[in-house]
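RECORD TYPE: protein structure
NAME: NAD-dependent epimerase/dehydratase family protein
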Amino acid sequence: MTKRALVLGGGGFIGSHLVRRLKHEGMWVRSVDLKRPPYSPSPADDFVVGDLRDPACVRHALEGGFDEVYQLAADMGGAGFVFTGEHDAAIMHNSAQINLNVLECMRNERVGRIFYSSSACMYPEYNQLDPDNPRCSEESAYPAAPDSEYGWEKLFSERLYFAYARNYGFTVRIARYHNIFGPEGSWNDGREKAPAALCRKIAMAPDGGEIEMWGDGKQTRSFLYIDECVEGSLRLMRSDFTGPVNIGSDEMVSINQFAAMIMEIAGKQLRIRHVDGPTGVRGRNSDNALIAEKLGWAPDRPLVEGLAETYRWIAAQVREAASRP
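PREDICTED:
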């Protein structure tokens, strides 16, 4: 019998790539989101355009039973969306409402196991003040002190999923994603993250020109290419380990170094003008000791490889947008 998967948030960046992978494996897939993927058609067998903040939408999505449910739906974006404070209420309300609906509606449905995508944003700010030595191991989450309401909501929802697992017998898997990037993600709508924003700025700038960067560029991050994110998510989902576990790269770079990598890919020499703007914590890097121990696997693809593919895609988007009247 063909296995069935449900991807909530399947119209988004990670969700649309996950749907493609599940279909490649031969599963029957239902995808649910407010809108369809913007850059390529979804291969889902059934795509439901609906609002998961509405319990009726969740109940409809769960009809038929599923072997695997992936809950990726959230109100989120990059630093320009998350760290300004202007969207805090919506971020917390919308994402929490989705997770509350999903878990409550699942109590009476046939579901094998559910995957929840948390975020490295839930780690304490006090462990990420030194850009050269951030601490993001899974056990460092407490005492809790995320640097954003987005991070607080993710931490709350982790606890929510584990509470439902304990009380109602759910099989839950939880991952903490670290800065996922790749083609077909937001790049110009105000919700784009640093990789897409820098690729766009560099693609648009003439050789010898200038780009703006928020902050001094000395803040550090690691970035994980989308294919490895999907691979790690499936390995965790189908393992005996509950999590939470980091799914991210441990190749840490400063944002200045990151921009230099993109410029080299683009074949451009550009000046960087540092300006005030939201930057998040000073340092963040995925600690992969636990995922290697529990899954016998950890992301290892060099950052530059995924970055080259991402830049080519965004540069093509920039050219296409410029050619439109």
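COMMENT: The mean pLDDT is 96.
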